[in-house]
Write a structure and sequence with these properties.
The chain is of the alpha/beta class. It has seven helices and five strands, in the order H-E-H-E-H-E-H-E-H-E-H-H. A five-stranded parallel beta sheet has the order 1-2-3-4-5. Helix 1 runs parallel beside helix 2 and helix 2 packs across helix 3. It binds zinc ion. InterPro entries: Metal_Hydrolase, Phosphotriesterase. Its cofactor is a divalent metal cation.
């Protein structure tokens, strides 16, 4: 698996190289195959210095466990994103405990304004307003350099062409709401520009 990943990053396909490893998919509990995938990602990240992004299983312990496996295999927290935290860690103390690991904390379901989460019915999907409140809490706790946001658009009905909010939702609707809720322009710029730029750089 590491050989495939390394080749995609260094040689690419038809001259086109990928710039990150991910999303590295994991379920809950994490399967043996997924452990191997995380360890292979860690080995290549350690070797090439590339960014990694992990998709956690739908359980509050899943992000921490995935990071533990990655770090024990040589991965780097500061260059790794944990995606989908919106639907994964709800308890504020648990969230701050997870943040101490030092990876990026991604809130990437902006625009998904449904309370029913069809993939795990025990989870109440937060609204955009609730996402912003959680981000504000993380900012107050000193996590500015760790926060990333996005839309995770993976279905046609979320594109503007099919009546969705499209890729401009954060810029058009979320940033103004963040500013109205007391998040500063400097913090917005760090989340939207500086943090992605830093994450996407190879560190070796
Ligand atoms: Zn994902």
């Amino acid at each position: 698996m590491a050989d495939y990943m390394r080749q995609d990053l260094t040689d690419g396909v038809g001259g086109i190289k990928c710039g990150i490893i991910g999303e590295v998919g994991t379920a809950w509990p994490i399967t043996d195959f997924e452990c191997r995938s995380l360890r292979a990602s860690a080995a290549v990240q350690d070797e090439l210095g590339c960014p990694v992004i992990i998709h956690p299983g739908r359980h509050p312990n899943a992000p921490g466990e995935a990071m533990r496996i990655l770090l024990e295999a040589g991965g780097k927290a500061r260059h790794t994103v944990m995606s989908h935290l919106d639907r994964t860690i709800f308890d504020k103390d648990c969230l701050l405990e997870f943040a101490k690991i030092g990876c990026y904390l991604e809130y990437d379901l902006f625009g998904v304004e449904v309370s029913h989460y069809q993939l795990t019915e025990s989870i109440d999907m937060p609204s955009d307003a609730q996402r912003i409140q959680t981000i504000k809490h993380l900012l107050n706790e000193g996590c500015l350099k760790q926060i990333l946001i996005s839309h995770d658009i993976h279905t046609k009905h979320r594109l503007m062409k099919y009546g969705g909010h499209g890729y401009s939702h954060i810029l058009l609707n979320i940033v103004p709401k963040m500013l109205k809720r007391g998040i500063t322009q400097h913090q917005v710029d760090t989340i939207l520009k500086q943090n992605p730029q830093t994450w996407l750089q190879f560190f070796k």
